Amino acid sequence: MHNRGFTLLEALVVLALLAVLLSLAAPSLQGLRQKHQMQSQAEQLQASLLLARSEALRRQQRVTLCVRSTAAHSGPECATAGTWAQGWVVFVDGNDSGRREPAEPVLQLHEALSGFLTLQGNNTVDRYISYGPQGRSQSTTGAFQAGTLTLCGAGQAHVWRVVINAVGKPRLEKAERQEGANC
């Protein structure tokens, strides 16, 4: 009579081989996971911008995104220093200041990004991005506000840019990381 199936020894050998193969594949999976996480964060930033724009139109008043404060005691406040990698706050900017006051409603909070990611805006969007009642991006002085936020990941060959045009519409673009780029 022949027994069908595996012996305990055969099953252990197969499991050991699988463990070795998975440990060899893990480093490449880490890079792939970071690549997808980076893209997801870029898409979340674009979604927050679209939310702010649509809420400004709907409410007929200014809605702002600002760099989130990292102070331990602070709630959803705007930072005076740091980068967008600290997270961001989307709020109704009732006094058109570009900074959140305690009475201004928060529409969305985004936590800080993973440690391997950096997110920086150029000079026009390094601290806040604001949308007026017509859905156009505008600075606190009323001038149009266009700019680029660049998302970089340590060890990644590409960067993601969220480009805000003169009327405030954000778009995503994936680009090659430049040699010596400030990321």
Task: Please give a structural write-up.
The chain is α+β, with helices and mostly antiparallel strands. The protein is built from 1 helix and 8 strands, in the order αββββββββ. The strands form 2 sheets. A 4-stranded antiparallel sheet has the order 3-2-1-5, with helices on one face. Strands 4-6-7-8 form a 4-stranded antiparallel sheet, with helices on one face. Strand 7 and strand 8 form a beta hairpin. It is elongated. The mean pLDDT is 89.
List keywords for this structure.
alpha+beta, 183 residues, minor pseudopilin epsh fold, 4-stranded antiparallel β-sheet, 28% helix
Write the layout of secondary structure elements.
Elements: H1 8-59, E1 63-67, E2 88-92, E3 106-110, E4 117-121, E5 128-131, E6 147-153, E7 158-164, E8 170-176
Antiparallel strand pairs: 1-2, 1-5, 2-3, 4-6, 6-7, 7-8
